[in-house]
Design goal:
Radius of gyration: 33 Å
Largest sheet: 8 strands, antiparallel
Structural class: alpha+beta
Number of strands: 47
Number of helices: 21
Length: 892
């Protein structure tokens, strides 16, 4: 079976793979470290790592590509576009290795790659030309050539493409600097610094003809395209056929393109580009792109059954039958929009990052490579996808594309979608009066919120967060101080679940493009709008163009909450907009906000606002209500330990976060010498689920567990914060003191015991069911699983999560719907109905995994634990050695 090496990345790599598979071929992908999880790697039949993300060390390393093709047994190499697609030495090396190059010959790449040589070939073939010069050797020669041609002129690099290495000069004074700059850019980008000069057409359109040749002189013209809408000489919107061309001119440029390529015995796909002067109705030769063009889909969409990539692959193996008959029939119109990860509102600055959501219309052709979870790196071109619409008329195609773009969204990175939408509605575009300067005049008026400063740790959160996934380790996240955020949202009339910003310590600076109504709650902090102070807890107007600055929390409290009327438009991830930074998902790009980010205001339905009359009381000396359990005295702690816990003014440690608030105080005496089979320290137990707000003793250090997890672990929790006071965890500052107030019975958290089952309280919204003694027993684990399945089947209203541990099951409920005493009775009844352990049957599977992972993240975690907690734990300094020792293995 024929194998092709796909020597490219992104959407074009995906496209080549699809075409190869349609031919019945196998495709071999290449990838850099940054693209290890990219779609083209998974689509291919085989994949080869090239090296680090840097292009020079991966996709631009010709030797590695040739070696990959040889090692993978590839008969053909397709270069795609960009990268090495027009590099003659690379094509020559491919063919020297006995591999067919799916593109023009090396000699053709050399001839057409140097623009001065291409111009000479075009002139010999009788192609219409702009006035221009040969290669210029000095700035003085460039000035003389420009004056002879007449201003304005354009200085251009002889090598390269894609609009790189161009400079427009309107007078002689601008020429020397432009000459030096173009030569410098050309040398850096293409390794060749030649510069020439030609007449500049100010009100120009960019028109091109698609050609395909078999290398023997047979060449087909496959229609023309208009690629006029550009930014920085880079195409953004293309269409086929080119609108508004006189028929005679259309025929003339098609014939000229065929003559030029036939004279060179051109092989494979290529494009002959022209500058069209609408006032003169003249088209003049611009250059030849000796490769597949990014915009080739619009030509395919207007030619029945045409697959240019498949044609290139077939021709590379000697099959030129596609040129034997007439070209595919042309009909209708097609328009393509390129979606880039860049911000038009910030000078088209690239916007790398994690894409958290993608929605493309299903009625358009989408050539893309991104999905939720794709990491867009700054190492490569920011093109994400191409959307292609067709129609019987140009207006139909434009309307279809506009409708498709209206249904398209990409979250996590800034994109040019708003610019594309505005461009398609521009009167000049609709009237075919657009030029290469038109896109710069398009006004984007979609509302946006620019992040000028991200603050210390600002994330998007919603309430109650991401519930129902605790059993697979996904925490709810959400606001750490839910009371403040919910009250501020109510003050605006927003629903309680409306996304808002949680700002830790230092808040952000946000510039609003349209007027907004804002309310800020939480910690004491200075708030200003364009330098004028505004109050917390009271809604205030932010005018269009104004900047809201949320200063540092310098008074009491640690976190402020910025709520906007209508909220923020952020796509839910696993059912919530909440940001989980450790998991890198949710919110904006799965991370904290940074300068340069762009947020969109939301359109959440609003009701009558509820003024904040009793905001949460902030202090630096906190008292927090707790309930005993799940693991208190006398089993794990001594009565004196529990007495000291409630009598101590614990100090908040600086090493605290959303995962947990670390406290400093006396060490417990413990009611036992060690954790038995569960571990060497008396705080150790077999892994058990945790409740948010549980006071987790990690060794001798207590940590109030926060909304970002962990979901379970091997440490005891003597008390748990009651639900209505967990908001206080979000406002604890380093240096604050905390006293715990018992708000229930002194029962050690044990609600009931029967046979070998213990029912424990974990706050006022969690019941922890423990089976048997603290031993590793698969029979106990099966009982846990059986009870979990039975509870899930009952689908009791009020149950939020069912989370299993090694020998325990935690049932998280909404106590307003299902109170703990009622839950306890129901669980006991269901447990009674379970068959004896030897008769249990549960679904099972076998999974082969390493015993432990020795990865950089694990080692870093151990180092941080040693530095911040203790350095004499059994698993320090290397967890792998600990696993070896406790399992009695001979070697790591």
């Amino acid at each position: 079976m024929t194998r092709v090496l796909v020597a490219n990345r992104g959407e074009i790599a995906c496209r080549i793979i699809r075409s190869a598979h349609a031919l019945g071929w196998e495709a071999v992908a290449v990838f850099s470290d940054a693209d290890r999880g990219a779609p083209h790697v998974g689509m291919a039949d085989d994949a080869v790592r090239l090296g680090p993300a840097a292009p020079r060390a991966s996709y631009l390393d010709a030797a590695k590509l040739v070696r990959a093709a040889l090692d993978a047994g590839c008969a053909v190499l397709h270069p795609g576009y960009g990268l090495l697609s027009e590099d003659a030495p690379f094509a020559r090396a491919v063919e020297a290795a006995g591999i067919a190059f799916a593109g023009p010959t090396p000699a053709q790449l050399e001839a057409f790659g140097a623009k001065d040589r291409a111009r000479a070939l075009a002139r010999e073939a009788g192609v219409p030309m702009l006035d221009g010069s040969g290669v210029l050797t000095s700035s003085g020669e460039a000035v003389a050539a420009a004056e002879a041609i007449g201003f304005p002129v354009m200085l251009k690099a002889t090598a390269g493409g894609g609009g790189i290495g161009l400079a427009v000069c309107h007078d002689a004074a601008a020429v020397p600097e432009a000459f030096a700059r173009v030569g410098r850019v050309a040398g850096a980008s293409f390794g060749a610094g030649g510069v020439f000069c030609e007449r500049y057409v100010a009100a120009a359109r960019h028109v091109e003809v698609q050609v395909f040749g078999d290398g023997t002189g047979r060449v087909l013209a496959l229609g023309d395209r208009d690629c006029t809408l550009q930014r920085r000489n880079q195409k953004v919107i293309e269409e086929a056929p080119a609108p508004g061309l006189p028929d005679a001119l259309r025929d003339r440029i098609a014939a000229a393109a065929v003559d030029l390529c036939a004279a060179a015995s051109y092989r494979s796909a290529g494009t002959v580009e022209f500058v069209y002067d609408g006032e003169r109705e003249e088209a003049s030769f611009l250059e030849v792109n000796a490769r597949l063009q990014v915009e080739h889909p619009v030509t395919e969409a207007t030619h029945t059954g045409l697959d240019l990539v498949a044609w290139m692959l077939r021709l590379a193996t000697g099959d030129g039958a596609m040129l034997d008959g007439p070209p595919p029939a042309a009909a209708g119109c097609a328009v393509e929009a390129r979606v880039y990860a860049e911000d038009p509102g910030n000078d088209h600055r690239p916007s790398p990052g994690l894409i958290t959501n993608v929605e493309f219309p299903d009625n358009l052709r989408v050539d893309g490579w991104v999905a939720a979870g794709t990491e867009v790196t700054s190492a490569y071109d920011p093109l994400l996808a191409k959307l292609v619409a067709t129609g019987a008329t140009r207006a139909d195609a434009l309307d279809a594309l506009a409708a498709g773009l209206a249904r398209t969204r990409v979250d996590g990175v800034a994109t040019n979608l708003a610019l594309l939408r505005a461009a398609l509605a521009h009167p000049a575009v609709r009237a075919v009066e657009h030029t290469t300067a038109t896109l710069a005049e398009v006004v984007v008026d979609e509302p946006r919120i620019d992040v000028l400063c991200g603050g210390t740790l600002t994330t998007l959160q919603d309430w109650p967060g991401r519930t129902g996934l605790w059993h697979v380790g996904v925490p709810p996240s959400g606001p750490m101080d839910d009371r403040s955020m919910r009250l501020a949202n109510r003050a605006l009339g927003n629903p309680e679940g409306t996304p808002a910003l949680e700002c830790t310590l230092q808040g952000p600076a946000l510039r609003f493009s349209t007027p907004a109504l804002v309310c800020v709650g939480g910690a004491e902090a200075e708030l200003t709008v364009d330098g004028e102070p505004v109050e917390r807890w009271v809604p205030f107007e932010v005018p269009a163009g104004a900047t809201l600055d949320v200063g540092p929390a310098t008074g009491r409290g640690l976190r402020t909450y910025v709520c906007v009327a209508g909220g923020f438009d952020v796509a839910p991830y696993l059912g919530s907009a909440a940001t989980f930074t450790l998991g890198r998902f949710g919110g904006h790009g799965g991370r904290e906000l940074r300068a340069g980010d762009v947020l969109a205001p939301g359109t959440a339905p609003r009701t009558a606002p509820a003024p904040v009359v009793d905001p949460p009381a902030l202090t630096s000396e906190w008292e927090i209500a707790v309930l005993d359990g799940p693991h208190a005295a006398p089993e794990f702690f001594t009565p004196e330990d529990i007495e000291a816990l409630h009598a101590t003014a614990w100090r908040v440690h600086f090493n605290s976060a959303r995962t947990g608030v670390r406290l400093v105080g006396p060490r417990p005496r413990w009611a036992r010498e060690d954790g038995g089979e569960a571990g060497l320290h008396p705080s150790n137990i077999h892994d058990t689920p945790y409740a948010i707000g549980a006071l987790d003793f990690t060794g001798d250090v207590p940590i109030l567990l926060g909304p970002d997890g962990p979901s379970l672990g091997g440490f005891v929790c003597p008390v748990t914060v009651v639900r209505d006071e967990r908001w206080k965890l979000g406002q604890l500052r380093p240096g604050d003191t905390v006293r715990f107030r018992r708000s229930g019975p002194s029962d050690g958290g044990v609600l009931a015991r029967r046979s070998d089952v213990t029912y424990r309280r974990s706050g006022d919204d969690n019941l922890l069911v423990e089976f048997g003694e603290m031993t590793l027993d698969l029979g106990l684990r099966m009982r846990v699983h059986a009870l979990q399945e039975r509870l899930a089947a009952e689908a009791l209203p009020g149950i939020v999560d069912l989370t299993p541990g090694i020998r325990s099951l935690q049932v998280h409920v909404d106590p307003d719907v299902l109170a703990l005493p009622r839950l306890l009775g129901l669980v006991r009844e269901l447990e009674d109905d379970l068959p004896p352990t030897p008769e249990l049957e549960v679904p099972s599977r076998i999974v082969h995994l390493p015993l432990s992972w020795d990865d950089p993240a694990t080692r870093e975690a151990t180092e941080r634990y040693m530095a911040g907690v203790r350095d004499d734990a059994p698993w320090c300094p290397w967890n792998i050695e600990f696993i070896r020792r406790v399992n009695g293995l001979d070697s790591v």
